[in-house]
Specification:
Layout lengths: L2 H29 L8 H12 L11 H10 L2
Length: about 70
Amino acid sequence: MTIQTAEKIYHEVKELRKETEFLKSAVLLVLRDPEGEYKPSFVRRILRLAAERPKKLYRFTAPENFIKHVRSIK
């Protein structure tokens, strides 16, 4: 193999790497969540809370009662 052939192959591989990186970033850009990434600790906490039984059941008879309750939750 001559030096020219080796340089040509090197150039082609370099171009293929660039194209692959571009395509990979384009695909990942489409698959990403528009709201961003969530912290793993937050996800675990929410899943644990969702699996627990509610400590207290609430019945709301008016929208104002619901708003007051939501505002009081910390």
